[in-house]
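Give me structure tokens for this 229-residue protein.
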Amino acid sequence: MMNGDSCLTVVMPCFNEEATIIECTTKVLESRHVGELIIVDDGSSDTTRSLLATLSDSRVKVLLQDVNQGKGAALARGFTAATLPYVIVQDADLEYDPAEFTKLLQPLLDGKADVVFGSRFIGSDAHRVLYFWHSVANRMLTIASNMFTNLNLTDMETCYKCFKREVIQSIDLKEKRFGIEPELASKVAKGRWRIYEVGISYSGRTYEEGKKIGPKDAFRAIYCVLKYR
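Here you go.
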């Protein structure tokens, strides 16, 4: 598996993503690295679940939450079910490009890292231009997290986090919603695992296009930075 073929479990939480779920799943499965795709539907009320029922690829496992519990709860369930050497988070909204799995995996395959964060704020990859205050909030939350973890991350809130499976399955996760991001950063730092960052592209959505994170999640993130310090 040193070349990375079929070594990756992708954990994809989704909630009401009927517009993108099939395209996103298709792009994920195009990657030679993907041997397992665990989709955790977090109580969708649109047609997402019926679309998931049409998936026939043997690499796909669909887990259903009875009610909406939040991204953190969906991720925790997916992480527990992972079976391959490396595990990555993929949102179902196509803001992040599965074609970049190779660059995220490389530090792990090279034996240099235990955890890799994909940063939207370094590198020269394409980024959709959207909300100024979102970028300010992301940077402020990252700085606050770094102050307590003593890491020098540039993008703590990134979706793209890739782990050795034994690392992520050793972490006892508590946060049910978007507080999972600062919790993960804090607990990875406490574990003293080797952390790398690589630059990634980003195609953000507007709220009209389905973006879900909001101001209350930013306040929760601040609370979580302090809670898990």
